Amino acid sequence: MILLHLSKMEKFSHYVIFIVFVGLVIGTSRADLEMNFYAKSCPKAEKIVQDYVNKHIPNAPPLAAALIRMHFHDCFVRGCDASLLLNFTASTGNQTERDSVPNRTLRGFDFIDRVKNLLENECPGIVSCADIIALVSRDAIVATGGPFWRVPTGRRDGVISNASETRQIPSPFSNFSTLETDFANKGLNLTDLVVLSGAHTIGISQCSSFSRRLYNFTGVGDQDPAMDSEYVANLKANKCKSINSTTIVEMDPGSFRTFDLSYYMLVLKRRGLFHSDAALLTNSTARSIITQLVQGSLKNFYQEFARSMEKMNKIEVKTGTDGEIRKHCAVVNS
Ligand code: HEM
Ligand SMILES: *[C@@H]1O[C@H](CO)[C@@H](O)[C@H](O)[C@H]1NC(C)=O
Ligand SMILES: *[C@@H]1O[C@H](CO)[C@@H](O)[C@H](O)[C@H]1NC(C)=O
Ligand SMILES: *[C@@H]1O[C@H](CO)[C@@H](O)[C@H](O)[C@H]1NC(C)=O
Ligand SMILES: *[C@@H]1O[C@H](CO)[C@@H](O)[C@H](O)[C@H]1NC(C)=O
Ligand SMILES: *[C@@H]1O[C@H](CO)[C@@H](O)[C@H](O)[C@H]1NC(C)=O
Ligand SMILES: *[C@@H]1O[C@H](CO)[C@@H](O)[C@H](O)[C@H]1NC(C)=O
Ligand SMILES: *[C@@H]1O[C@H](CO)[C@@H](O)[C@H](O)[C@H]1NC(C)=O
Ligand SMILES: *[C@@H]1O[C@H](CO)[C@@H](O)[C@H](O)[C@H]1NC(C)=O
Ligand SMILES: CC(=O)N[C@H]1CO[C@H](CO)[C@@H](O)[C@@H]1O
């Protein structure tokens, strides 16, 4: 009706505006993950993941640590798109993320493959490996008594995995400004950096990730003055007996299976294992966030952690018709 009264030019511009509007709406809905995305296409999907995790993680709680770390590494390279699960393929000769240094200590690939098999049996070709990583890591942390966060779904799997891109994963040797930049590059801020580092309250590390701090911090056989010297002596005597020790240590000794505030207490006592943990004290804003977390309740930490995980699990996600739903998590569809 209204269009009838408009000049041709106006009609045209309204038409353009309409198209742009529709485009925006489609574009937006495409870019958004949704809660329970598989409600119609695979209604049991999230339950199958949760049941499998609840059945197996209580027998192997350290796996929860491995899985949330896998989620972090996935999201920091090409977004949360399961690119880190892709295997080296002799045909292209491309080294994939899995082949790179930061990934050599990742674990839990078999676990993801087993969940994928269950979901392929239930509804073939529907549930992405990227969503599986996001759901499994959340459910695994919950199964060990840790925080809960929302995992909207609808991520699609990437088709490219490039080993050299894992340079974007923050290094344990980095200083504060580098860490902050690494996180900012992924849309995460200083608060997220401090809060997500709290995941180091669970899990293990190889000595190689920090032994320089004990034996050769600046290359003259010295130790890192930012680490409590008693703690250095203890680690050298009992855990990492040489700079090349291949021993594994608990990052939060005595409490490495419990998702609590003790990581931050250790950091404040200058007993964080990595240079990157210690670096959090070198910025006054970060330091004050740590102090607040330690003085606050566990519930408050869980809420903050959930908020930051909900940001992390949306990094550069592929949705709509981007990417694909892989049949096998380790290979792109042919
Ligand atoms: C701030 C930047 C970060 C750096 C530099 C960093 C570095 C590291 C390193 C070097 C290890 C030990 C690897 C090994 O030697 O075995 C590790 C372990 C771990 N990281 Fe981080 N990380 C960071 C952030 C995160 C985030 C954001 C999360 C999860 C939200 C996370 C979760 C974990 C967990 C759970 C482990 C233990 C893994 C296991 O037990 O297998 N880290 N991290
Ligand atoms: C492998 O490398 C080629 C280019 O050499 C590229 O086109 C292809 O996408 C890469 N494959 C993966 C899985 O990254
Ligand atoms: C991998 O990424 C690096 C830079 O990040 C680029 O130089 C290289 O060409 C990429 N390799 C492939 C096979 O695409
Ligand atoms: C942090 O490390 C980066 C990279 O090694 C370096 O360029 C920068 O100068 C360092 N910043 C500070 C404040 O030490
Ligand atoms: C980081 O972002 C969150 C919102 O996601 C905000 O509440 C918080 O204040 C920000 N932190 C800093 C240091 O800007
Ligand atoms: C300490 O680092 C320096 C410089 O990188 C190296 O020359 C030296 O061999 C290292 N010492 C040990 C004991 O690894
Ligand atoms: C540790 O390993 C490095 C590299 O393999 C080697 O150069 C160095 O001599 C070793 N240091 C010790 C103390 O064994
Ligand atoms: C801490 O980091 C914030 C954000 O980059 C910055 O504004 C502030 O100057 C830093 N403080 C110190 C003491 O470096
Ligand atoms: C991927 O590589 C791993 C480790 O090398 C191997 O166990 C697995 O069978 C491979 N998966 C596929 C589908 O090729
Ligand atoms: C889990 C995984 O794929 N690890 C790989 C990491 O990189 C090394 C070296 O390239 C491989 O041997 C591992 O299989």
TrEMBL record:
Residues the entry annotates as binding Ca(2+) 2: 201, 252, 260
Catalytic activity: 2 a phenolic donor + H2O2 = 2 a phenolic radical donor + 2 H2O
Active-site positions on this chain: 73 (proton acceptor)
GO molecular function, one term: lactoperoxidase activity
Organism (species): Handroanthus impetiginosus
Record's function text: Removal of H(2)O(2), oxidation of toxic reductants, biosynthesis and degradation of lignin, suberization, auxin catabolism, response to environmental stresses such as wounding, pathogen attack and oxidative stress. These functions might be dependent on each isozyme/isoform in each plant tissue.
Protein name per UniProt: Peroxidase
Family label: Belongs to the peroxidase family. Classical plant (class III) peroxidase subfamily.
EC number(s) reported in the record: 1.11.1.7
